[in-house]
Write a structure and sequence with these properties.
7 helices, 19 strands, alpha/beta, about 25% helix, about 325 residues, 5-stranded parallel beta sheet, 7-stranded mixed beta sheet, about 25% strand
């Protein structure tokens, strides 16, 4: 272990926040203002969360002209640091959460100890794995209809998926698009009957069964899609300027899944509307506990809850 790691492990922090994004940075703002001097382990690549891959954010309160996702995260980070939070850009490789003093080991070999931990590791949208899919994120490729649907007014767009979330996205997008095509690689949807009935009854929604997206056309933005018949292998072109991928998401729970209770859907379980996990002094916030709403503003609210819960817990130790 390096001298720096040894020095770091000698300090016991009141609060360590694992992960960043709206939840982590909001938790940092609140705990910093409570003079708890939080340490945020923001991640080496994922710092700022999913909003770092988002262009215009027009539904976060307080920004009537909108704000770029990376700018919003930068503002939150600066605000947290203004009040005394420390942010490091490293990844957590190991956690020990069942002791009164928690131990966090980072990928760079630093050992950190804390009386309380807030987990805001988020979740990751499942991708199709297509070339240029990530490159065109925010330029016609999206994973969030409520975030980006407004930008596709009077356009032909595609929703990929066959579950409830896909049909919910498709139904929502009909408020803006002239046509929404749901592409599903099988002949039957997995969605509930009520969601299917609603989608089938919507005149703006069309279905393309037994097909999958094979390629994305366009240079700087989506200008069409190449689709493949999953039964025959035949390729064809679909006119579309937007593609919403709705094939699910995976919470980032791997580093603590063996220590904390997970829900049946794999998300981290907390007590009611609180942020309390099954271990004293361990709290969670943001998308890692929320498979439903997944918005920046709900994640930020969740981060506030976690910060207040952690503050109350620390006060009880005195």
């Amino acid at each position: 272990m390096t001298d720096n790691a040894t020095d770091a492990s000698a300090i016991i922090h009141d609060v360590v926040i694992v992960g960043s994004g709206p939840a982590g940075y909001t938790a940092a703002i609140y705990t910093a203002r409570a003079n708890l001097k939080p340490l945020v382990i923001a991640g080496s690549v994922t710092a700022g969360g999913e909003l770092m891959n988002t262009t215009d954010v027009e539904n976060f309160p307080g920004f009537p002209k909108g704000i770029m996702g990376p700018d919003l995260m930068e503002n939150m980070r600066e605000q947290a640091e203004k009040f005394g939070a420390e942010v490091i850009y490293d990844d957590v490789s190991e956690l020990t959460l069942d002791d009164s003093v928690k131990t966090i080991t980072t990928a760079l070999g630093t050992t950190v100890r804390a009386r309380s931990v807030i987990l805001s590791t988020g979740s990751a949208y499942r991708e199709l794995g297509l070339p240029r899919e990530k490159e065109l994120s925010g330029h016609g490729v999206s994973w969030c209809a409520t975030c980006d649907g407004f930008f596709f007014r009077d356009q032909n767009i595609v929703v990929v998926g066959g579950g409830d979330s896909a049909l919910e996205e498709a139904t929502f997008l009909t408020k803006f698009a002239s046509k929404v095509t749901v592409i599903h690689r099988r002949s039957e949807l997995r969605a509930s009957k009520v969601m299917q009935d609603r989608a089938f009854a919507d005149e703006k929604i069309e279905f393309l069964f037994d097909h999958e997206v094979a390629e994305i056309h366009g240079q700087s933005k989506v200008e069409g899609l190449g689709v493949r018949n999953t039964l025959t292998g035949e390729l064809s072109t679909l006119d579309a300027t937007g593609m919403f991928v709705a094939i699910g998401s995976d919470p980032r729970v791997s580093i603590f899944a063996d220590q904390l209770t997970l829900r049946d859907d794999g998300y981290l379980s907390v007590e009611g509307r609180s942020s309390k996990t099954g271990l004293p002094g361990v709290f969670a916030a943001g998308d890692v506990i929320d498979p439903v709403y997944r918005q920046a503003v709900t994640a930020a609210g969740s981060g506030c809850v976690a910060a207040l819960d952690a503050e109350h817990y620390l006060a009880s130790l005195v």
